């Protein structure tokens, strides 16, 4: 009888903190001792088993990786996708086009590590692709990904695309999905330094040849992939290259590359401002992951370990808690912040209802 009483106490619970709201149930102490006839009591136990709290139907999850150019959004998205059976939906408005792999800084097949990347290099270079079209495509792709039991991870720096996806069409996506917004951020001076270095690396990888292959004096530079930073600047150089003397060409190229660096730095500032407005104006619960240390130590032998410790590990804990619903993350070491303040992840859910 004692074991039956213990079982009865176990199954008659008023509420489950993990699964939300459920119907209220009587506690064992509400019944009189006279009710404990063995047969009557066994009936009550069986009946109670059918009344156990059940989780309310939950919405599918979607992860957003936001951040300025050069903050490691793609690298983090791939790391999370490998851990959580995810697929990446690109939200960079220039990377949706085919071509200019170096200038648009697309991830390479090797860097993708087998993770499916959607809306990456799929469109004709001169096609128009609006934020509304992105919302429709990204919603369709997210639905397909979740239907196969996988996790959609939307990653990219085009905040107009991201805002349209989340808030457009009456916030249909936000109503359909629980969204976790992770913002990878780098302190501006360190980001400026990295952006300049990255442009130099892009030159080594073939930036000038890419721009020359695309060069067309009669083309419309307000449409398609030609709007990418690096294309208009190189266009000015290429128009003057043929008629310039050799020593002048070197100076003209250096001038074009400096302009690319400055325009990219200016873009990062605009991107950071827009992300702040997501939090301030749209009340998105952003989780900030500070990538500054990883950027500062990018030349160290331990650079990859620093990335894993300071960026990927905290993000993995956050997403593990977010998609699991029962694992409470409390070992962030201050690496993740919500609403601009260093907090334990569990202090803010990160979902939108």
UniProtKB/TrEMBL annotation:
GO cellular component, one term: mitochondrion
Single GO term (MF): ATP binding
Coiled coil: 243-273
Key words of the record: ATP-binding, Coiled coil, Cytokinin biosynthesis, Nucleotide-binding, Transferase, Transit peptide
Family (UniProt): Belongs to the IPP transferase family.
SUPFAM superfamilies in the cross-refs: P-loop containing nucleoside triphosphate hydrolases
Pfam families: IPPT (PF01715)
GO BP terms, alphabetized: cytokinin biosynthetic process; tRNA modification
Superkingdom of the organism of origin: Eukaryota
Class of this enzyme: transferase
Annotated source species: Vanilla planifolia (Vanilla)
Enzyme Commission number(s) from the entry: 2.5.1.112
This protein's name: adenylate dimethylallyltransferase (ADP/ATP-dependent)
Catalytic activity line of the entry: dimethylallyl diphosphate + ADP = N(6)-(dimethylallyl)adenosine 5'-diphosphate + diphosphate; dimethylallyl diphosphate + ATP = N(6)-(dimethylallyl)adenosine 5'-triphosphate + diphosphate
Record's function text: Involved in cytokinin biosynthesis. Catalyzes the transfer of an isopentenyl group from dimethylallyl diphosphate (DMAPP) to ATP and ADP.
């Amino acid at each position: 009888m004692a074991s039956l009483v213990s079982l009865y106490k176990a199954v008659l619970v008023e509420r489950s903190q993990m699964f939300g709201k459920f119907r209220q149930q009587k506690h064992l102490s509400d019944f009189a001792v006279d009710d404990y006839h063995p047969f009557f009591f066994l009936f009550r136990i069986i009946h109670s088993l059918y009344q156990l709290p059940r989780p309310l139907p939950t919405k599918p999850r979607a992860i957003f990786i936001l951040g300025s150019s050069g903050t490691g959004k793609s690298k983090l998205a791939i790391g999370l996708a490998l851990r959580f059976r995810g697929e990446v939906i690109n939200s960079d408005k220039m990377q949706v086009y085919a071509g200019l792999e170096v200038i648009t800084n697309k991830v390479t097949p090797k860097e993708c590590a087998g993770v499916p990347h959607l809306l990456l290099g799929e469109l004709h270079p001169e096609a128009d692709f609006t934020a509304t079209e992105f919302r429709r495509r990204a919603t369709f792709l997210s639905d397909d990904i979740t239907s196969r039991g996988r996790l959609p991870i939307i990653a990219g720096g085009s905040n107009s695309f991201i805002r349209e996806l989340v808030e457009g069409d009456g916030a249909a996506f936000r109503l359909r999905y629980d969204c976790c917004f992770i913002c990878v951020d780098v302190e501006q001076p360190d980001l400026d330094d990295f952006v300049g270095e990255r442009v130099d690396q892009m030159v080594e990888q073939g930036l000038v040849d890419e721009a020359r292959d695309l060069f067309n004096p009669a083309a419309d530079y307000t449409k398609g992939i030609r709007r990418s930073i690096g294309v208009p600047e190189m266009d000015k150089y290429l128009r003057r290259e043929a008629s310039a003397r050799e020593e002048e060409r070197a100076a003209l190229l250096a001038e074009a590359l400096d302009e690319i660096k400055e325009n990219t730095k200016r873009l990062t500032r605009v991107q950071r401002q827009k992300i702040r407005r997501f939090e301030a104006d749209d009340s998105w619960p952003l989780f900030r992951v500070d990538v500054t240390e990883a950027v500062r130590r990018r030349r160290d032998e331990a650079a990859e370990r620093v990335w894993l410790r300071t960026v990927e590990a905290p993000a993995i804990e956050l997403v593990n808690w977010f998609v699991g619903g029962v694992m409470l993350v409390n070992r962030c070491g201050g690496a993740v912040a919500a609403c601009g303040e260093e907090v334990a992840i569990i202090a803010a859910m990160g979902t939108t209802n």
